[in-house]
Write a structure and sequence with these properties.
With 895 residues, this protein is mainly alpha-helical. The protein has 43 helices and eleven strands. Helix 12 runs antiparallel to helix 13, helix 24 packs antiparallel against helix 25 and helix 38 packs parallel to helix 40. The termini are far apart. Belongs to the proteasome subunit S2 family.
Length: 895
Amino acid sequence: MASTKVAQPSKGLKEEESDEDKELQIELKLLVDKITGTDPKLIPPAIEMLKYLIRTATTSMTSVPKPLKYLAPYYDLLKASHVKSTNVDIKKSLADVISILAMGTAGGEEAKKNRECLKYCLLGTMKNIGDWGHEYIRQLEKEIVHQWPHNCETSSTMLMPLINDILTFNCTHHAEIQACDLLMEIDLLAMLPEYMSRNTYERMCMYLSSCSKYVDDVERGKIMRLICEQYLRFNEYSKSLIIALQMKDDEMVHKIFESCKDKVTLYQLAFICARHVYPIELDPEIECYDELTNILSNSHLSSYFLTLGRELDIMEPKAPEDIYKTWLEPVPPRITVLGEHLDSARQNLASSLVNGFANAGFGSDKLLTVDGGNKWIYRNKEHGMLSATASLGLLHLWDVDGGLTPIDKYLYSTDDYIKSGALLALGVVNCRVKNECDPALALLGDYVAMDNQTLQVGAILGIALAYAGSHRDDVIELLLPLISSSSMEISSLSSLACGIISVGKHDNEVSVTILNKIIDMNGTDRLKSAYARLAGLGLALCYMGSRDAIDVPNEAVSILEEPFKSIMETILLMCGYAGSGDVLVIQELLHIVGEKVDISKEGKKNSAEKKDSKSKKDSFTKIKVPKKPEWDYSIGQAMATLAVAAVSMGEEIGAEMTHRIFGHVCRYGDPSVRKVAPLAIALSSVSHPQLNVIDVLTKYSHDADDEVACNAIFGLGLIGAGTNNARLAAGLRQLAVFHTRNPSQLFMVRFAQGLVHMGKGTLSLNPLHTDRMLVDPVGLAGLLAPLVALVEPHALVLGDSHYLLYFLVAAIQPRWLLTLDENLDTLPVTVRVGQAVDVVGKAGTPKTIAGIHTHTTPVLLTSVERAELATDQYDVVGPTLDGICVLKKVKNVKV
């Protein structure tokens, strides 16, 4: 028969065929002849022999097994024999062979279209399907996924036995990732726990966790809950807690603490919650209740941080001149003096901030804590005295017991600005620390309702920082009446304070109060104030990380007039999806950034008048007068630019892609978008000074537009915060020379220098923690407040509201790896530190770090570094060596 002839290979291929290949072709042809022949006794052994030859065929990774290649021409003939056969066993056995042939090119596109591999597999014996190899299983999985939606009821009964076999094979042959993919595609992920074992659960959970970033909210919830339950099932309490914190599931968090009976593990759980500022009420009957409460209150931070400072021998305070290194600046002394005299009060203010941030947490400096330190405060003016006094709080950061006394004397000052600064300093000292005596509320509460606006500002900001993330009802009730204040500054700061206190908690009372205030201002000039955006941020912070929950306030703000409506919708989107890496939200925000704003005739008229008046002013004077806040119709796009960075920062690939987009925005965007782009670039790389980011921001720090330059300089400080990066420090010194005659830019340069040397290089502003798996909502809120204020730099931060920079305190954390023993005493151990490597879905047991250096704890880690224990004497009970880790001593058991 013509159909039984072996396909003639090409001349070139024929030359390559060996004698063994020719023998195999002849043997296969004989077997096919027996199967399609008339002797029923020869058919079963011929089929078995054919199966054997296919199973045992070896091949390279890039070529088709030879039996499948040589049997391809007989595919239709074998199908015809299957139809004619009346013996049930023979039909099933032959269906197995046809199914495996359909996997390759034998049936052509028609076989693929009709899913014949799956069809004949179901008609076959369905025994030991794994014997055909991983590629066959993958082909079946692909066809099951395509078949499932078409005939779901029939599919579930017919395909379930096959699916069970495939899952069993995958989970016992190092193909757990394929098992997860199959069940996610057919929406049967609930089956997965049946196939998880102690050897496979970790790899599967890690993969599912990475997949959860790319699915919708409903599917994400299912995946996260499954991961959390499986970690708990295998007693991985710390990993289970991380997933519960990502879901913000209070019930699950309590369940994890109740399920865990090991004291050391409970300590580690408490340290994770304390780092995340996650308020949790423990059962008083729980083991080691007092120690856990102490850890959750963060009262350990100051003592452990000072231990780190002593270990690194950096307790000697630094003066602002040590940070600036003015002796390295190639500038004649005369010009430097002239530069200082142009705006000496502003430079003194910069030195106060630099002094505070550089010596943060160490309790001593060379300006304020020395004899006659209050003389320095009087070298500032009005609001400058407020920020200078508040910097005392930074020096005693987290030290509630020791920090209140040196600040207390300034509360009795006759100058309102100094008194207000002391109130803010009290809040800074208590930031992220919960004290049973509650000194912040006791000292600040009386000043909140005062008629004196200067004192109110300090008290409101102090309470906001002291109780950030606590969601204390009594504190919120104290601030809520101030939201309806007639003063725009007090109203907006109160809204922002309530937002940061109840961050991510969807507090209905707070959100309704702020919304009502914003709606009352609709149609008035009050919405044009830069403070109005801070009120909007306060509302959005209530929904931090809440995703779809922002739909309700979105509907409410839809009645506002443009552009404030767009601004509010964008801020809500930014906070609701902050750190999520949601691709669809990023695309939506990029669409907002890219569209052309339709400015009304009134807007055009205002801009024309502004341009005309500016040209007249410039013709008479060379002094640049800061612009007053005006109705900017493209400011919604500016917020969207910032939002792209906030959303993408939790997902590395997305953050990397947005850097290139920001480059285009800086070149071609509207002026308001251009001045925010440097802030967005910095936000996506906080405390992580990458060379390409430094180069881009340095370029824009020389921009002709002073607002773009100021924000770029601030961005340089943000990306280098707490890193002591030498390249960045040298670049900022050059900028100080370049901007000697520009007071605003020089102020920003000095402040950026202080940020780079923050805590003498031991602190970080990065809100991502615990191996970048969690986004600290309080830290992110602390970053967003000054960034939103800097959308119009001269209106707030470069004006009288520089105290907003103190919101960065909420994001300050040591960038350490501190190891403790079972009694919570510091324990020096040897660790290997290197660049973190993504091992999700990789085969075997790949290395999790690269470029290894060996150190003894405590050590400082950058935002992209990871550590591993280099000793077998201790076990790590946490999910990773990061932050404060409690180690358990391994018991030597003699066999």
